[in-house]
Amino acid sequence: MKHKITLIPGDGTGPEISEATVKVVEATGVDIDWDVNNAGAEVYEKEGTVLPERVLESLRKNKVGIKGPITTPVGTGFRSVNVAMRKIFNLYACVRPCKSYPGVKSRYENLNIVIVRENTEDLYAGIEFELNKPETLELIDFIKEKKDIAIKRDSGISIKPISVSGSEKIIRYAFEYAKKNNRKKVTGVHKANIIKFTDGLFLETFRRIAKEYPGIESEDRIVDNMCMQLVQKPEIYDVLVLPNLYGDIISDLAAGLVGGLGVAPGANIGDEIALFEATHGSAPKYKGLNKVNPTAMMLSAVLMLKHINEQKAADVLESAIAYIIKQGKYVTYDLKPNRNDPSAVGTSEMADAIVRKIKELS
Ligand code: NAD
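Above: the input record for the complex with nicotinamide-adenine-dinucleotide. Below: its predicted structure, written as tokens.
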């Protein structure tokens, strides 16, 4: 069956890792018609917008997409394209498997943790009140009047909404994921001891939904303790479900446990649309150098192939990637024991080695 898939190459090093990813996916023999529609900084220069309507239209039509990273300028300028797409399509679940691959430098072995992060609410909802703006001062007065709490007048304020419906959706997704993928345990992460009306609500919802899944063990952890435990004994964790901000931070922490951003894939899932992308950013300093590691985007393609029910192709691609990493010969600088190793290959050469292995395995 032919699949039509939206491909957003991204900017910075995005186009290089996207090209490498397309190459290895095609080598599996899966029949894909790539609907290439870029977004990001380079598109802005030509079209005056970082996220043209044609990109959204393509995703609406194809329902499945894969994207390279897109740069978000810090402080000023446009809001993140990545955050915008998650909101527009209500891609409420961000799924980030963190799995050990022999050959990747790491302090730990045999880890296989999946982070399920809520993707639309919390402090990422974009409800912000800027310093000294009339509406900010009005809000400060309102809070003094209603709550008798004096917020300093020289404050900026960001709002953290967490809903019952949003929490139910992500928590149920995590348990369903666990069931479908033969996982044993789901851990709910929160700071309900301090933040009672948002994290408290998340925790209450977690405990309620957990009862619907008696076959899956459940437990909850306060986020600071979770950080310590992940560093001390990560092997006891399986699936974690978290509100947006903690999910963002813990998914980078968990990526670090298995060897870093270069090997951390991700999926943004909604009821209708799924968008796959690496956890890492556009690493702009390496743009055009054929240097960065394409593994994270390739592993995101593995998740994509599973999503479109091409399980065999997904397995072959993952095995080929794992083989090349373990062999350690045709890998990028960051996968070599010494980052200055002159035998490191470029992005496209690593992809070529994976293609050769796929041909051997298929
Ligand atoms: P980054 O992930 O781009 O880079 C962080 C560090 O990791 C860099 O030192 C880089 O050398 C290294 N690195 C990242 N990817 C690598 C790879 N594939 N191979 C080898 N090394 C790699 O993070 P940043 O510097 O904080 O962000 C750069 C830009 O990317 C920012 O504008 C940020 O907003 C954006 N960003 C986009 C996404 C996305 O598109 N989903 C995600 C995160 C950051």
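Notes for the reader.
The CA atoms of residues 39 and 45 lie 11 Å apart.
The longest strand covers residues 93-99.
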